[in-house]
């Protein structure tokens, strides 16, 4: 005889109590069910926004290529001009600001990007990218650019919408809240699904709330691994949890290293051929690029001019697709000699994993396939949220919203399980403040509502109050 399935978002009290279970873990199910219900109802709107904006961001890479095709691509010519000539053409068209970086054309049909900082009208932390035809040195346009992946206005707008809803640092709290809870809700859903997997296994032929529950559970199980990954990697650059992760990596000696940009030896600070921040400083871009090529730095690369009179040029690979190319060299501006070399293969293990995790999360590690996978995950999350709310509605058969499982489930959990569980939740809440603080608020409100309901119950049975 098959029992009726319970929901992963709410569960009505059954007329007949289930048979006692010999497992000490059985009492955990009602507790997880109640927490899953509250988290699903109250956090789901934030997850929905993150999923929709994430879906848009995953598609923005291909949209960017279409929208900015004129600036990004050129007809293939016979021979590319020296980088210095291309930069000179960009500076002639845009003398404002200072050159912060140059990305020589990485492919036969790609333009060279000259990035200018301090340009009036360009947002803080952004640069003005001037696109130059590498064969003719003709400027094909200029666009505001953001981030290490060279996001142009369309992708930048969607990226910031996904990250902070265009509300600045305050808006980042929404995305950190969503990332903090996504893994927790997924873990709770898995526990609930596998604890009733026999009853929920068949979806075909089911109707109403049972069918919705089956779809919700099936898709959730298949997508859970992806949700755990998005949650973990999304937290790496969040405001509060990200700071804890950085501190942990630093304490373990796993921080991401950087090439030394100090100009070495007696040459440092004695070159009068140019000034700091000028791409023509010292030996110039062409010799700097040639020195980097001799060290094995293939395209795509970015050249960063010296920050001051005592600094070196830094040339770094910027390919974040697989295989990752992230080697970097520092070039003495006076002699053109290599002052320092940093290979990606020498990065600490956690630094590499962080790099790959972020790139996979942002859709650049495996290109189009990566972006399609992210879109499918985002769509799965959207469907799960919709089905979750639908089950909540179906619980009341359209007349009223459903109720979570009755309170007091934690009292049935054996102390040898409850105490370590609470300790683990406390540690997790410390490292993930936007999980811990909302959870504490949920519990406080739930206790308050429970006390109110208890007092009303006493009055309804004629028990004197107070």
Question: How would you characterize the overall build of this protein?
Answer:
This protein is of the alpha+beta class and 466 residues long. Among the domains are: 154 residues; 80 residues, Nuclear Transport Factor 2, Chain: A; 83 residues, no CATH class. Helices cover 50% and strands 9% of the residues. The strands form 2 sheets. It has a 4-stranded antiparallel beta sheet. The protein is elongated and about 85 Å long.
Please name the defining characteristics of this protein.
466 residues; alpha+beta; Nuclear Transport Factor 2, Chain: A; 4-stranded antiparallel β-sheet; 13 helices; 8 strands; 9% strand; disordered N terminus
Write a short abstract of this structure.
This protein has 466 residues and is α+β, with helices and mostly antiparallel strands. Among the domains are: 29-58 and 166-249 and 368-407; 72-151, Nuclear Transport Factor 2, Chain: A; 257-268 and 276-346, no CATH class.
Based on CA inertia axes, which overall geometry fits?
Answer: elongated
Distance between the termini: 48 Å
Structural class: alpha+beta
What kind of sheet is the major sheet? 4 strands, antiparallel
Number of distinct beta strands: 8
CA-based gyration radius: 28 Å
């Amino acid at each position: 005889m098959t029992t009726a399935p319970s929901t992963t978002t709410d569960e009505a009290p059954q007329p007949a109590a289930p048979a006692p279970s010999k497992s000490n873990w059985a009492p955990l199910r009602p507790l997880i069910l109640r927490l899953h219900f509250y988290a699903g109802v109250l956090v789901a709107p934030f997850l929905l926004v993150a999923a929709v904006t994430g879906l848009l961001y995953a598609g923005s890479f291909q949209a960017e290529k279409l929208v900015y095709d004129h600036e990004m691509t050129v007809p293939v010519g016979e021979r590319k001009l020296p980088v210095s000539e291309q930069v000179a053409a960009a500076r002639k068209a845009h003398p404002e600001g200072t050159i912060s970086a140059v990305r020589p054309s990485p492919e036969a049909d790609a333009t060279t990007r000259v990035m200018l900082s301090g340009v009036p009208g360009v947002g803080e932390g952004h640069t003005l990218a001037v696109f130059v035809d590498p064969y003719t040195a003709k400027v094909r346009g200029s666009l505001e650019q953001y981030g290490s992946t060279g996001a142009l206005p369309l992708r930048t707008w969607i990226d910031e919408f996904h990250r902070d809803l265009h509300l600045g640092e305050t808006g980042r709290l929404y995305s950190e809240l969503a990332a903090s809870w996504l893994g927790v809700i997924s873990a709770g859903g898995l526990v609930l699904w596998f604890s009733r997997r026999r009853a929920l296994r068949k979806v075909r032929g089911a109707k109403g709330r049972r069918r919705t529950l089956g779809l919700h559970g099936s898709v959730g199980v298949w997508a859970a691994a992806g949700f755990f990954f998005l949650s973990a990697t999304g937290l790496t650059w969040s405001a509060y949890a990200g700071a804890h992760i950085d501190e942990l990596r630093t304490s373990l000696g796993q921080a991401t290293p950087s090439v030394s940009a100090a100009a070495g030896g007696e040459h440092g600070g004695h070159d009068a051929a140019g000034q700091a921040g000028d791409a023509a400083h010292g030996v110039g871009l062409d010799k700097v690029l040639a020195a980097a090529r001799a060290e094995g730095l293939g395209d795509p690369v970015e050249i960063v001019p010296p920050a001051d009179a005592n600094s070196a040029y830094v040339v770094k690979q910027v390919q974040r697709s697989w295989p990752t190319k992230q080697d970097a060299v520092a070039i003495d501006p006076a002699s053109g000699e290599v002052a320092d070399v940093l290979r990606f293969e020498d990065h600490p293990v956690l630094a590499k994993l962080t790099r790959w995790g972020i790139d996979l999360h942002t859709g650049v590690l495996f290109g189009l396939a990566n972006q399609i996978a992210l879109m499918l995950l985002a769509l799965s999350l959207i469907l799960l949220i919709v089905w979750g709310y639908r089950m909540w509605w179906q619980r009341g058969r359209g007349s009223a919203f459903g109720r979570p499982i009755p309170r007091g489930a934690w009292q049935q959990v054996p102390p040898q399980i409850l105490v370590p569980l609470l300790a683990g939740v406390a540690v997790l809440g410390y490292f993930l403040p936007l999980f811990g603080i909302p959870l504490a608020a949920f519990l406080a409100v739930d206790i308050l509502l429970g006390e109110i309901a208890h007092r009303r119950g006493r009055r309804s049975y004629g028990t004197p109050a107070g």
